[in-house]
């Protein structure tokens, strides 16, 4: 059986380490990137089952990364936003960009 593959975009080392460890402990494969550009380049040549995106990352932010993924390379892959930005405007922006949860 192939492990579920997760694309994780998080630039904070402590947060990304904790999340990656938890997902791997639960048997998921994790590909971790600190910015959207690197994650998108990887996604163009890879397959994955879920994307978890921080919004505030260097360069291409989480919203832009989601739109890029949804524009073709991962149109059917669910995207979840994980961020401290919890106001209504950001939640709407995340869902409008293609996320299934925020």
Characterization of this structure:
The protein has helices at residues 13-25, 36-44, 62-73, 88-96; strands spanning 5-9, 29-33, 50-53, 79-81. Helix 2 runs parallel beside helix 3. It has a four-stranded parallel sheet, sandwiched between helices. The protein contains four helices and four strands; from the N terminus they run E-H-E-H-E-H-E-H. It has 102 residues and is α/β, with parallel strands linked by helices.
How far do the termini sit from each other?
Answer: 29 Å
- Number of strand elements: 4
Helix content: 40-55%
Which structural category do the helix and sheet elements fall into? alpha/beta
Gross morphology: globular
Low-confidence stretches: none
Record keyword descriptors for this entry.
four-stranded parallel sheet, 102 residues, single chain, 4 helices, alpha/beta
List the helices and strands and how they pair.
Elements: E1 5-9, H1 13-25, E2 29-33, H2 36-44, E3 50-53, H3 62-73, E4 79-81, H4 88-96
Parallel strand pairs: 1-2, 1-3, 3-4
Helix pairs in contact: 2-3
Summarize the structure.
The protein is of the alpha/beta class. The protein has helices at 13-25, 36-44, 62-73, 88-96; strands at residues 5-9, 29-33, 50-53, 79-81.
